[in-house]
Amino acid sequence: MPFRPSTTLNNLLENKTAVINYCDDVRIFAGCLTGRRDWPLQAAKKINGQVLKAALAHTEVELVHIEEDALRPKLFCKAVHTVNHAPFRGFNRAQFSVLEAAILVSRLNMIPLAKIETELDYLRIGLEKTAGDRELEAWGWLMTVVDNYKAGVSA
User: Fold this and answer.
1) H-type helices in the chain, by residue range?
2) For residues 110-123, b (16+ Cβ closer than 10 Å) or e, as one string?
3) Which of 1, 58, 76, 155 has the most crowded Cβ, counting Cβ within 10 A?
4) C-alpha angle 58-106-87 in degrees, rounded to nearest 5
5) pTM of full prediction above 0.90
6) d(Cα 135, Cα 25) in Å, to the nearest integer?
């Protein structure tokens, strides 16, 4: 149920196919919000599409039905090919913190800044205890967006 307008919706309506990537590299999630979208890809097997090389698994889907809606149409897809590349071992606290921070960053225009800052302060605790290089890099990207937003708000 992607919102209008969105790149995801436009691509699926145009191509009638998509790849759902399952990954645990939180830089990819943070990168989507911060303009870093140049991740290594490989060709999908059954559809015309691309799979993230970092994916732990992926599912190739075809669009079969649309329930129209002015804001958020429902897209019904059929899985045509699924592959597991590596096991999912769960998210550690730092990865969870980055994912939650990414959600907050995506809502900077919807949630009061004070609430976002309070949430980030809490998430930073788990990040500082368990982060590796990937998580620190992703967190840094997200905090740059927050800092830029705050500078624009206070200017």
Assistant:
1) 7-15, 26-34, 93-105, 113-130, 133-154
2) eeeeeebeeebeeb
3) 58
4) 25
5) no
6) 8
